[in-house]
């Protein structure tokens, strides 16, 4: 019998091109840009790792922008200024070029210029093309880098990676923004949050995380909302205080930022992002935020039990001015605005042991300690007029013993958006879904 | 303003308990088992990393199985035989024990014995409890280890991690087993596969992967099917032959198995799994499989254009006997049974440049080269009686140029099931979903 051996590997030259200076190499890629200068041409070739500069002397032949090519050549030293190219200290003197495939049509917009001159509708309608623009591609490399940095931290700190169901019988958040599906003749829903399941899993593995899609039927088309997004969920068992959860999140975000700085320098530069380091994040209580907003911005919302987008924005502005931090934790949200499973402050039952993390003007995380005691949970449900028997599949975990626990959920697309400074969360989503968009 | 610093870290003792021999430590966990021996008691305490043996002299006090506890004690050398305990070369002489929380009720079944005596219905109904049984927990640690090993390989070989939508306008696989949802007044579906999107992304990043849920409305309740499962998807650009994809998968599986052997020894031992190493996988053509089945097992299915579960099982048995391999690639599936985007063999248009990977009797992967040429794709759709205009959102990528590419999708739960030797794929799923099961 024939045997398939390990292979299909990325060419070593593409992995570490600078190691091949002076050597003859061959590699494959897609022609991103051609600059014909008469006697010779620059061909910029997109690979799995970046865009390489190649020089072809004489006639170019059949090759076009968008052609997949196989190139043989010699690696030479270079000093390239164009930020789209990486690495910029080498180029390839082409000896032979073979065209592997050729596009049927030229692109409907130019992806080789400094600016991509299309509106958001075209950008999303032709996402498979617009992502080929290096600055667009960089967004999703940065997103990948954030995920890697977060995941590395979670694993290093003893979290087990879990996989929870997306089709559920009851929503964790309740409310109207839930998608209904027909499930073999039964009503079911798309999950809004893995909340119940990560609590179950904290009772098994103590510390868990999941990075997976969640669904919200958001009827408003804003620059902050998606009907499908990636939730970075963590749940930590055996906590003594919900401060431990915030401390854990500081560490996780630090790890994510460090991973970007170490491994995504090209993409950060291309996106014009200068990441500031941090090892601590300021914290304010909910009522302190309300008072600061009143005092500093003359808006009196003291009776509102939530923060408006305006207030989130302004408190970030204030904290940045006062401390230099782009992040701020807001704690002790009113119990009335938090879900039933949130743990009330034993010293003031109108407030919860909960927090939001705001970053550059928007909420990117909601978290807090949960009720772990069975009787406390049943009582809270009754106080809210809920029928505990409907949530027996959840409270059964508490009945048979759950450890003190809490966690957070972070919106990956919002984090990506704000790291890069994009004006819309959809721009930080490969294939966004909203009330008007279901394709591609 | 107060500041939240990095913290909430897992105790160093729990990370590397053997490093603390002879030292005084404190840690938290949940009491898994109590063995009261009169003068002293064994308390086995479940932590984020495993189950530790603790010894309490004298009276036990209020502590119960299921209690969350904070323990202070001295780490001593030990030789423990019980396979549920890890590590087995140390134990903790307890100086002080504080109960942090206590269960409302005793567990409905015993999770401390060698065997968990419950049927599958109870196991799944009370998943949050049954997963606390060490052998059940081990299943999902092994699943985590497989994912880590795969992901490490994908990243090392230059794949970008992508996130594609789960709510889609058209299914990639077609057919009846697709869940419909109401999307703001429009009909939409839950994705059966990220196929279209990973092809788009191969045109952007060259090599991509995604590990995410997919959905199939499987009306048959078998031990092979789930209505929601985790698909490990890879797409590689600039391939010369679909053999590269198989070679890549051999490397990825090797990395997954090696990660288990290096980092999940406790769980493998607990599950009674001895993983055999491999660096190559035998390959047979589809028609060769049919001929072997006819010759060896006297079953003549030569005219059927697919392999039956019986045939998958038997060909694995045959290959194991002939070569010792538990894996076998089957290539060149008939075009009639593969989706429209599959690339036909230029030498025989009735066969595709495709493969399945079978492992211990079942298909765990489907893969192959795709059509990258626009005109070839349009022609194939027409030949199949499809209306190309309905798939314009897909073929637009081909129109503007796609590189030669292909990939595979692997069912994570089936892989986990077969690695461990479980009799049902649902047992390799934390919270399985099938035609009869929507909870918990």
Features:
28% strand, BirA Bifunctional Protein, domain 2, 440 residues, OB fold (Dihydrolipoamide Acetyltransferase, E2P)
Describe this structure in words.
Two copies of one chain form a homodimer. The first copy, chain A, is an alpha+beta fold. Chain A folds into two domains: about 10-100, OB fold (Dihydrolipoamide Acetyltransferase, E2P) (Beta Barrel); about 135-430, Bira Bifunctional Protein, Domain 2 (BirA Bifunctional Protein, domain 2), CATH 3.30.930.10. The first copy, chain A, has twelve helices and 19 strands. In chain A, the strands form four sheets. An eight-stranded mixed sheet of chain A has the order 7-11-12-19-18-17-14-13, with helices on both faces. A five-stranded mixed beta barrel of chain A has the order 2-3-4-6-5. In chain A, strands 8-10-9 form a three-stranded antiparallel sheet, with no helix packed on it. The longest helix of chain A is centred in the N-terminal third of the chain and has 23 residues, at about 135-155. The two termini of chain A are about 45 Å apart. At the A-B interface, strand 1, strand 2, helix 3, helix 4 and strand 7 of A face strand 1, strand 2, helix 3, helix 4 and strand 7 of B. Strand 1 of chain A pairs antiparallel with strand 13 of chain B, so a sheet runs across the interface.
Summarize the entry for a quick read.
The first copy, chain A, is α+β, with helices and mostly antiparallel strands and 440 residues long. The first copy, chain A, has twelve helices and 19 strands. The first copy, chain A, has helices at 12-15, 120-125, 127-130, 134-156, 195-205, 243-263, 265-270, 286-297, 309-323, 374-383, 392-399, 412-420, and strands at 2-5, 24-36, 40-46, 51-57, 68-77, 90-101, 160-161, 167-168, 180-183, 186-190, 207-215, 228-237, 280-285, 327-331, 344-345, 348-352, 354-359, 362-369, 405-411.
